[in-house]
Amino acid sequence: MYIDIHSHIIPGVDDGARDEAMSLKMLRIAHDCGTRHIIATPHYFYGNTRYVFADIIEKCACLNDLAANAGIDMTIHPGCEVFITLELAEMYEQGSIGTLAGSSCMLVEFPMMSIPPYIDNVLYDLQLKGITPIIAHPECNAEIQQNPGLMESYIERGILSQVNSGSITGIFGMKARRTVMRIIKEGWVHFVASDAHSDTSRDPDLKNAAAIIEKKFGSKMREDLFAKNALKYLAISSGS
Questions:
Q1: If I label 60, which of 4, 21, 163, 175 is the partner at 20 to 30 A Cα–Cα?
Q2: What is the number of alpha carbons within 13 Å of residue 187 lying toward its C-beta?
């Protein structure tokens, strides 16, 4: 069983699934590859997003009904992918954003090209509120690609990280692939997720990435990154 903690599977809210038909296609792809839990994590940009977290909870309930009616054995959990900003803790208190699947973990996205100096304070503020930040796809950040060792300080501070399956399979280029293999080898990664946006080029099929990780790092690493760490850190049980 796989647990996918990062996907854009809710229809019509961001640059992910276009409509319910595409959401169902994505869910079928995920199910066929072995995923049984998937967290919907639409993008949230401060000042430029129309929904609040209560809307995501409602849309996930609708998507669960849609999946059940289609005979797809899958549980869709609410979450969001929050672009890091100084207002992050305030947005959480206001209910604009939320954590992953009712846990204490929040998926946080860095800028693609740099790591702004305010990031450390923002992540620390979240931790003071009892939230564990999960850095989304750090291997795609240009500064981390140049210096993967930057990840060590985050991990030492109790921050988690999630990498994309597409980085492992190579669809995001060689820099991302080299970086993701390095930080997995060093133990600086906790989750592999699909970051699925569609039913085509960026789909939610995790099995190819899982096979690569098992071949290179062994079955325990595959199990940890694709399921066991999600069971450990998030409010998901294998029977739920």
A1: 163
A2: 5
